[in-house]
Amino acid sequence: MTTLLIVDDHPLQRMGFRMLVESQPDLVVLGEADNGADAVRRATELGPDVVLMDVRMPGVDGIEATRRIIAAGGRSRVLVLTTFDLDEYAYAALRAGASGFLVKDAQPEDLLTGIRVVAAGDAVVAPKLTRRLLDRFADQFPVEGEADASAAAEQLAVLTDREREVLTAIGRGWNNTEIAERFHLAESTVKTHVGRILAKIGARDRVQAVIFAYNTGLVAPDGS
């Protein structure tokens, strides 16, 4: 079973999400929150697999709540939902540590798929959208200090040549099918490589792997 916490300041929106989620035999709602501060508290208290997080809420918004939940180091992953399909929101959510970003008017099956994908440890945001976001907001990435650069170099050093190739491909926005075709590998082999790469570089999901590839220079701002 995949457990969820639903966070939204509109009761009808929470009800709709709950009804959809509870229609699935493998998903269960542990609780709800109507603001960011309560979301952080309830995520710590309940430890859900996935937090469905609204962005625009009074007080502590969804971006800050996401940042606090991820910083706490718990098991919960965050899937951010918003009415506005804007790069700024997606960028802020991913930088805060979210594992996915969807608009609220997404098809029900897309939301359910997104929940399951995030629960399984992958990212919901389309790879090419991630690249577009990183390219657009390149100048907003923090400059790595000497210690950070040294740590990144050590993480890169433990990757095999093939893993480095796959990480570069991830950074360019390629999905597993495209990587498999490019390197003449089975998709199951690509998935294995991706899992090992995430573990070695300490990334929670594919989105963080893209950011890592970007920040370490494996991929240039133009995607080359």
Automatic annotation (TrEMBL):
Pfam families: GerE (PF00196), Response_reg (PF00072)
Keywords of the record: DNA-binding, Phosphoprotein, Transcription, Transcription regulation
Domain HTH luxR-type per the UniProt entry, residue ranges: 152-217
Molecular function, one GO term: DNA binding
GO BP terms in the entry: phosphorelay signal transduction system; regulation of DNA-templated transcription
Top-level taxon of origin: Bacteria
Transcription regulation recorded as keyword: yes
Signal peptide: none
Residue positions where 4-aspartylphosphate is found in the record: D54
Domain Response regulatory: 3-119
Keyword DNA-binding attached: yes
Regions that span the bilayer: none
Name the UniProt record assigns to this protein: DNA-binding response regulator, NarL/FixJ family, contains REC and HTH domains
Species of origin: Glycomyces harbinensis
